[in-house]
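Dear colleagues,

For the upcoming journal club I promised to circulate an example of a predicted protein-ligand complex. I picked one with fe (ii) ion because it came up in last month's discussion. The inputs are reproduced below in full, followed by the predicted structure.
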Amino acid sequence: MHPAPSSASSLPAPKGPSELRAAALAALLDPDPASKQAAVQGLYSAWGRGELTIDPVVDRAATEEARGLAIPGRPSRPLLVVPNALLRRAMNSAEGRAIGLHALSHIEFNAINLALDAIWRFPGLPPDYYADWLRVAAEEALHFDLLSRHLQRQGYAYGDFPAHNGLWEMAERTACDVLPRMALVPRTLEARGLDASPQVRAKLWQAGDRAAAEILDIILRDEIGHVAIGNRWFAHLCRERGLEPVATYEELAERYRAPRLHGPFNLEARRAAGFTEPELAALQAAALSYNHKSE
Ligand SMILES: [Fe+2]
Ligand SMILES: [Fe+2]
């Protein structure tokens, strides 16, 4: 295990609920990136000191108060647009790199929200599930902090460019059940980040932005852990429900319209994240068949 995401292990617990799932919802609703990030890191520290309780039973999403909540809390900028409307520039220009780093910051901001949502929304899981996702939330807050500060050093800020909402749309589609959520958010969208990371890192390095390349190294290291957590709980749920994991994944990907993964795959990182050989073989076979169809 690598060191905890926040070096500030003495951060105070945020003001508000002392029950972890209620506190995760409060942080999710916070629209301000800096205070959301501080709330998450404060929660992670408080959890480590044993200051939070956990109620895995209450179904918060089914309550009257949960209806009409503005989830997730987010700032008024960036403007959310459809993916085709996004700005694209080559990474060898300063503005192009800033646009790329901004897109990564937005992924991390959404990833904080996704981890908090996994905690508050789904009842009935073992305490380790909630602790795992709190760790993910704290690591995503660190990634957002590293990237948004780096962006500021280039003279830009989070919110300066438009962004798309694909990650959160998958969260909404899978809000009904933790099984598709685990299958399609960490094991599909975060795992796609493992595949993309080496190329993005190489472009940043070639462009001379070594600090950004080093941030990507930290992110890749942590993201392997996030995908592993997705695999852990997907496997747990499949066992509990008597489902076969490979066929179940394929069925869920189809039903919830998951993006098709075309490769190339970062098999080393995927193995480190706990994908089994039958899962990797099925992934590669599916990619081969999409690639043939699109030729
Ligand atoms: Fe991340
Ligand atoms: Fe992640």
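Two points we might discuss: Residues 26 and 123 are 17 Å apart (CA to CA). The chain has ten helices and no strands.

See you all on Thursday,
B. R.
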